[in-house]
Write a structure and sequence with these properties.
single chain; about 300 residues; alpha+beta; 6-stranded antiparallel beta sheet; 10 strands; about 20% strand
Length: about 300
Amino acid sequence: MMNLKQQTLTELLSRQATKEGFHESAIRDLVLFKASDQRARLQTLCEAFIVVLGQGNVCCYVGGEMYDFSVGSYLTLFLPMSLEIEVLAASAEAPLLAACIRVDLSRIATLLLQMDGVGEALGEKETAVSSGIFTAPINHKLLDPTIRLLEALDDPRDITILSQAIIDEIYYRVLCDDRPGASSFRHLLEQRGQIQKIARAVNHIQNHLDEKVSVEYLARLVNMSTSSFHRSFKAVMHVSPVKYAQAMKLFRAQTLLKEGYTVSEAGYQVGYNSPAQFSREYKRHFGYAPSATVAVG
């Protein structure tokens, strides 16, 4: 039965994901992805997504950890992350295909409150897992609503009336997953609020990319000690707050360069007063100089 459902998912994605790369669908918060060739490890900024793979094989690398993501599994990023992504299996005849559902932590928090109301709260157990990224085998309870979400693209009425409820169901199914990773995330949300605090810090960093990062200020912002904040941030994001902020600045600068900004202008917009320092850090991060961005991109 699972193989048949997986085949249905692949057929739907083959029909709906018609463009290369990430592209928006007619459903808010559903993004489709297609890659028709293998790709070497490339530094990529990924949104907060629940990703269900229909076809192909991908490896993600962050903070020295590798996440093998293949058909029959799903990957979740609960916050935007800088990852190295390697496409291992993809071709013109059998492209890599994926459905990506944006993660909205406020909607997930509302679902948790509803689950608490019907006696679904977790106990007080502790967990050592606090990562903001995980992969797990997919089950039919998550695969079914993913298929229905893709089917909704065929009917404007379904898009309007059903799609957001189906996305909430997908969130719910991830929260109900009792395997390592998914259950740990739910525990963090319910008991310690660690993800929410790190999310506040991440949002502040992304909204102030032209400013110097202060770990002490971020810790005060989320009501944590500096040492505890630094430790928790690195556990969730796999990099330190300073390294994360640097990556976000460089990705923003990359976007500006592609939009036609000069190297000096792009660097200044993300807080670099020294063009030489900006160029060094940019090349170290992406593997090529800022001046080569348009040609590479």
